[in-house]
Structure formats: C-alpha cells, structure tokens
Amino acid sequence: MNAFRRLAIALTAVIAAAMLLGGFAAAASATATYPPATPTSTPTSDTGAGTITAANTNPSPGGTDSVTATGFLPGETASFDLHSVVVHLGDSTVDAAGNATLSFTIPSSFSGAHTVTVTGLTSGRVQSIGINVGGSSSGSSSSSGSLAFTGAAVVGLTVLAVILLGGGIAMVVVGRRRTPTSTH
Question: CA 87, 107, 121: angle at the middle one, nearest 5?
Fold first, then answer.
C-alpha cells in the first residue's frame, strides 16, 4: 500500500506539471499573430461619387502615407480617419476641383489591415480605401513567402495525453500486483 501511495503522489505531481506546461503552450498558441489579408490596391469608393487613392497601400508602422479623395464639395472640410481603432489623421480643405489630399504618419503601434476613411463634413460624402500597415510592397500577404500558420500548437497537449495514458497504465499494473490482505 505504501508503494502504491508513493506512485499515486508522484503521478499526481507529474500530471500537475504537465497540465501547467500544457496551459503555457495553449496560451502561446492563442496569442499567435497571423498575417493579415492584403487589401486591394485598386481605389475603392463607398458612395460611388468620386474616387480615393493612397500613395502607398502597404506603408510601414511609423511611416508616412498620402491619400487623395475626389468628389467632394469645393471648399468643404474633409476629415481623414484611420479605422479599426479610430485615429483622426487630420483635416483638409477640398480644392476647387473637389479633391482632398492629406499626408500623414501611420501610428507606430499599428500593423495589419486598416481602412482610411475620408468624410466631407458639409456633404456627408464618404470615401474609403484599405491599407496594409507593415505589408510588403509586392502585394503578398507574407514577407517570408511561407504559408500562414493556421493551426494550433498541439505538442503540449500530446505530451499531456501520453503522460496521462502512461500514468493510467502504471496504476492498473500496480493495482493488479497488489494481493488482497485478509483482515483475519
């Protein structure tokens, strides 16, 4: 009985350690970042009345970019915003041809797919274009050329399963070796 108790305590400690390590592996896989989709470099428009273009649809974090939108009322103020987490980039006065242009700095904490939206404050007209902050200029979604990691890290869970299986087998073997003791 004493050997069985020691084995059970040892297995419990091993299982607890394996679960702790497995939890770290699961947490690491949950925080993995994936390459964002590359936005189209074709100008897009929400309203159909005008166009919008970006000087660079793949700017670097902390880098500069310039966006020009058309189709606004001459003289109105156009507001430029960067979306996903809204950051006001600045305002521009629309020229006589209805064009609004703004050069701005991409926040250094931004990466991935975002949208620059230009809103005419008088007309209410909205134009937007997607940009991929930190993306490659070739238009690919990954600068390394390798496939994106889309699975889960299962090594920790596999190790835990093997340890639990081994512990179960050991407990069955030790339990069968025990001979019943008589109380008489």
Answer: 30
